[in-house]
Amino acid sequence: MGDKVIVEVKAIGNIDDIHRAQLLNYLRISGLRVGLIIMRDL
What we know:
Elements: E1 6-10, H1 17-30, E2 35-39
Parallel strand pairs: 1-2
């Protein structure tokens, strides 16, 4: 797929297991290998 990455920006206080699981699911269904969760504190 070339040089692609999934980026998810969250406006939350903490990154929890559910957020990690969601990103892993996105990676699994897209076939991509790299994903970032960026936390933006409120």
